[in-house]
Design a protein that fits this description.
Elements: H1 36-48, H2 57-72, E1 76-85, E2 91-101, E3 108-114, H3 135-154, E4 161-167, H4 194-201, E5 212-216, E6 226-228, H5 230-235, H6 237-249, E7 256-260, H7 267-273, E8 279-282, H8 308-323
Parallel strand pairs: 3-4, 3-5, 5-8, 6-7
Antiparallel strand pairs: 1-2, 2-4
Helix pairs in contact: 1-3, 1-8, 3-8, 4-7, 6-8
The structure holds zinc ion (ZN).
């Protein structure tokens, strides 16, 4: 994603740092391993198609690859195709990809990321109109979720159902500096997050719901830290606490910092507001700088910034959370 803190959603929570005592009993047992080599491979594979810009051949081929991977892991896959217009008047052919594991299980957890990449590097100093790899902004979250899908296909001890949704059209928002300058048509709340806005108003199954959702965005860069994002704390503070606490128990408190930061516009906003599913966002934040690393929407967002340990911190935490869920 996306642009800075939303004006309407800025939530300044008091800054608190919590520490807790950990006992071995609090760490769930029999949680399968998250293979960060495999997750890295999935990031690399997406990048190899070229930038996944809607309407491009790379976008189509990468989307087909994601669908076939999920099917190979035994998921029931639904492709939700739709048309939306961008701020610069392009007619975008978009596709949300929904992969369901254990579709017969009533208690469900939703995991999501966006799979498209931004069509221009508008925050770069040069080559602003040239697309970038989107190794972190796009491919990293999807890479973690593909690895989780692979793990699910090889372990049957999960007690809940999982739906993985890859949102399309997340990253074609206004250029940097143009925020709020182009009026929105009826039916859109933002030029960003087109796929999550569409899905949240048109779920793949009419009565679909989930106990909660976890959104991943830019979860692969070296030395990333994930703070408690404002909208997540407004809509689903218990889920934030569950995830950050689990991360601490399994040794990732350096990555998951129990400290509040402002809200940002991302796909979880629409899942909360329109789909009425409490969803939190795992998105990096740099103390003193803000949500976006220097790579953000620049040519630097490439494979060189991707780090297996960061992918592992996020993926392993997610696996521990979902394998710890009771039916
Ligand atoms: Zn972006």
């Amino acid at each position: 994603m996306l642009f800075g803190p939303t004006l309407c959603l800025i939530v300044f929570n008091s800054c608190t740092v919590e520490k807790e005592k950990v006992t071995e009993q609090q760490i769930p047992i029999n949680v399968p391993d998250f293979n960060s080599d495999s997750a890295y491979f999935f990031v690399q594979k997406q990048v190899s198609f070229g930038p996944r810009i809607p309407n491009s051949r790379s976008h189509k081929e990468a989307g087909d690859y994601l669908v076939s991977q999920f099917k190979s892991y035994g998921a029931a896959v639904i492709e939700q195709e739709f048309i939306e217009y961008s701020f610069d008047h392009k007619k975008l052919e978009l596709r949300n990809i929904i992969a369901s594991f254990y579709p017969e299980t009533s208690k469900r957890i939703l995991l999501a990321a966006h799979w498209d990449t931004r069509p221009f590097a508008d925050k770069d100093i040069e080559n602003r109109n040239v697309p970038f790899e989107g190794a972190n902004d796009g491919a990293s979250g999807v890479g973690v979720l593909l690895e989780i899908a692979r793990v699910l296909s090889q372990n049957d001890s999960l007690k809940v159902g999982i739906d993985i949704i890859l949102f399309d059209g997340e990253d074609w928002g206004e250029r940097d500096g143009d925020q709020n300058s182009i009026s929105l048509p009826n039916g859109l709340d933002s030029w960003w997050c087109l796929g999550s806005q569409h899905w949240s108003k048109n779920k793949h199954k009419k009565s679909y719901s989930a106990s909660y959702g976890i959104l991943l965005d830019m979860v692969g860069a070296r030395r990333s830290q994930f703070f408690r994002e404002g909208a997540s704390m407004t809509f689903a503070p218990k889920i934030v606490n569950k995830i950050w606490t689990m991360a601490g128990r399994i040794g990732y408190s350096d990555y998951f910092v129990k400290q509040d930061v402002p809200a940002i516009t991302d796909d979880h906003i629409y899942v909360n507001q329109f789909a009425k599913i409490p969803m939190i966002d795992i998105v990096p934040y740099q103390a003193g700088i803000g949500f976006f690393g220097e790579y953000h929407h620049t040519q630097k967002d490439n494979l060189f910034i991707i780090n297996k340990e960061t992918l592992k911190a996020v993926g392993s935490t997610l696996l521990h959370v979902v394998y710890d869920e009771e039916p």
